[in-house]
Amino acid sequence: MRIAEKLALAYPDAACSLVFSNPFQLVIATILSAQCTDKRVNQVTGPLFRRWPDAESLAAAAPREIERMIRSTGFYRAKARNIRGCAESIHARHGGEVPDRLEDLVKLPGVGRKTANVVLGTAMGRAEGIVVDTHVGRISRRLGLTSTREAVKAERELVAVVPKRHWIAWSHWLIEHGRAVCRARRPDCGRCVLGRLCRKVGVERPAAE
DNA sequence: ATCCCGAGGG
DNA sequence: CCCTCTGGAT
Length: 209
What we know:
About 55% of the residues lie in helices and about 0% in strands. The protein folds into two domains: about 1-15 and about 130-195, Orthogonal Bundle (Endonuclease Iii, domain 2), CATH 1.10.1670.10; about 25-125, Orthogonal Bundle (Endonuclease III, domain 1), CATH 1.10.340.30. It has helices at about 1-10, 25-30, 40-50, 55-60, 65-70, 75-95, 100-105, 115-125, 135-145, 150-160, 165-180.
């Protein structure tokens, strides 16, 4: 529990920064957020959800038109295909409602384990695990919790070290820590609250203090 | 140049 | 395991 306590002090307000008003919108926004800042996602989701507010309407949208609206988020062709496919599946196979089980979410096009965990925890209040993105996976490796890149293993190890309630909040804390301090290159170890709790596995050159 | 709050496919 | 998809930020 030590790791979690220290992170809580360091990032008291960490939270999801995507703008959404229902689970459907969060699924779409989260898919768009891959390799892209939340700020830019929020810029495109405004017009996007005004034009296609629900699964039924997005499922019927012209792919070209979707691509045009989300271009600036990168990977726009794949993302357009995926969010439209999501809308189709949610509309046709789930009665227009986003499924609330991990196994069903992961079957939606463009939704992997990371996105599914974000949606469950953030929009449904049903977090089933810690969200492991590239940041969190890296932290897990440096802490010495995992040695491979398998997100599922990292998730299992972190779940064992973090309090059982509020997993989604802990996830946001970890993500923020990985982004701001435990960076991929030149991690700011001098500013890290974890201190000696970290084994610094593979940390070649920390930033000067 | 290099990396990113991924996922799918080989 | 590896690769690809893309634009934007730094």
